[in-house]
């Protein structure tokens, strides 16, 4: 597992539900009192069969070794429907068995952590910056209704 600081992550956010997808149960999490649900990557089944909603979903590299289409569909379904925060632990030097590559994770909208190589994340609450034009100065401003015409 790459160097993700699990202790800091769990102290920073009070997760009520966590889904951990890997080949084995993570050793460093047994002392936490958070609700952690573990699933084996090879036994996930079809992406459509996923049910539930989690505050955090952590995906280790085992899921990335599944067939590329299935892995990408599972990642995007987790990102869109099931997780508020998604963390993907991607090996720094992927071997040939990894079907999902660095560019695939970036194209799914995941951001690489610069401070910790090999970790990609997606946070529902900050994935997109609010553009400057999307504010009350330009939209639904009653003071300008009779002054300007589109």
Mean pLDDT reading: 80
Structural class: alpha/beta
Q: Which CATH class is shown?
A: Alpha Beta
The major β-sheet equals: 6 strands, mixed
Query: Which strands sit side by side, in order, in the main sheet?
Result: 2-1-3-4-6-5
Order of helices and strands: HEEEHEHEE
Please provide a written account of the structure:
The chain is an alpha/beta fold and 150 residues long. It has three helices and six strands, in the order H-E-E-E-H-E-H-E-E. The chain has a single domain (6-126), classed as Rossmann fold (3-Layer(aba) Sandwich). The chain has helices at residues 6-12, 68-82, 102-107, and strands at 18-22, 36-40, 54-59, 83-89, 111-112, 119-123. The mean pLDDT is 80. Strand 5 and strand 6 (119-123) form a beta hairpin. Strands 2-1-3-4-6-5 form a six-stranded mixed sheet.
